Amino acid sequence: MTKIGLEIHCQLTNLESKLFCSCKANYREFEPNENICPVCAGMPGSLPRLNQEAVKKATMIAMALNCSTPEKIAFFRKNYFYPDLPKNFQITQLNIYGDTSVGGSGTISVGDKKIRITRIQLEEDPGRLIYEGSSSKNQITLVDYNRAGTPLVEIVTEPDFETPKEVRDFLNILSDLLKNLGVADPSLEGAMRADANVSTRGGNKVEIKNIGSFHDLEKAAHFEITRQESLHDRDIPIVQETRHWDDRRKITVSSRSKEEDLDYRYFLEGDIPWVKINPEIRTELKSKMPESISSKKERYVSKYQIPEQVADVLSSDKFYSDLFEEAHTESNAKEVANIITTELMGLEDTREKREASKLSATHLKDLSDAIQTGKVSRNSSKNALHEILKTGKSVSQIISELDLGNVSDESELLTIIDKIISDESQAVEQAKSNPQTINFLVGKVMQATKGKADPTLTLNLLKKQIGI
Length: 468
Ligand SMILES: [Zn+2]
Hints:
The protein is of the alpha+beta class and 468 residues long. It has 3 domains: 3-283, no CATH class; 291-401, no CATH class; 410-466, Arc Repressor Mutant, subunit A (Orthogonal Bundle), CATH 1.10.10. 41% of the residues lie in helices and 18% in strands. It contains 16 helices and 15 strands. The strands form 4 sheets. The protein has an 8-stranded mixed β-sheet. A hairpin with a 4-residue loop joins strand 12 and strand 13 (251-254). The protein is elongated. The structure holds zinc ion (ZN). The site of zinc ion (ZN) has 8 residues, from loops.
């Protein structure tokens, strides 16, 4: 049997400042080593000051994952030397004096299965090492401390996963949950990293470190299972070890050294006092928790009769569900949901496209109203949507400029219909004996008007002219 456990590192990307100083949490826009101060650069004598907002956000994650949250939390020093760690220790959390991490003993449902969350801890991210040079002779390593001290939440699971697919499903759910909470944007480069523990057929546990994306996490688990299975088949024992994920070759490789918890010489961080999470704070955070994805989905189905699958897609994505909330009314909810899930999501499938888009909630509302009142056909509304994204012009302006409006002028439609009736005499005879086949003629009218004929009017006029 395969057992996989995960340790997921998630940056709290929506915070203003770093975990222990006022440097920007969003380090991505800076030139190297420009987003640093004595605290995050580890200068002697500098003192950390805890970002309260980070504690609140981390506690909200713990609550959303059904964890228990302690009354007091503590921080510890994890000592190790590495060039990306300017203080030579990382300030993190540990449960050695009771449960003092921000959260513990949670669960999250993945399909029919419950995945247990061991603990959630708040810690600082180290800096980044950048390797340059093409051969071993001229290789250089650059250090950028802009990221050092960025707030990071580590989510540790029990080894409850049995397949890489379960891992992927869990990551999708977790990623949607973090976005829905408004605490992180997992799509940002480096915002989500993970380690995985994999054991097969009761053999030794192998830890895979350094997996830089959710996409690779599934691949890494898959590779490691296959590697271990092949060793089992040849009766070669699995060595308990740490392996690294080689991002380029998409394989796991053995690391030379083995790190044990003991080597880190953990001790209490004396520069940060224990932090009380008062019942009032907890009540406040609970009241700030956004509607969960599952209850949002239920509401879309029961209140607006949106099909289950559409509601599922819509509720899972915070960006689009926010847009839906703003654009919909009692009467157009289904139409708005339909435009978002069938058209918009495809047109804005990357962050760049989403940022470049000039679409607003008003556009969506107006467009769905135009479809419902027969001003524009569903087919033509797709062209209108393309144009809105590009130009941001109003729906009515686009419909008139691109001549996308439905042909609802009776005499204009009659001219077209009469011509089709004379061209398609066989189909007309068929429609007389079997009225259902009239759809073929409706289709012909649509073709002739490039999909712009008002469908209801077309059908009524056709019936009248044929005499059925
Ligand atoms: Zn700083």
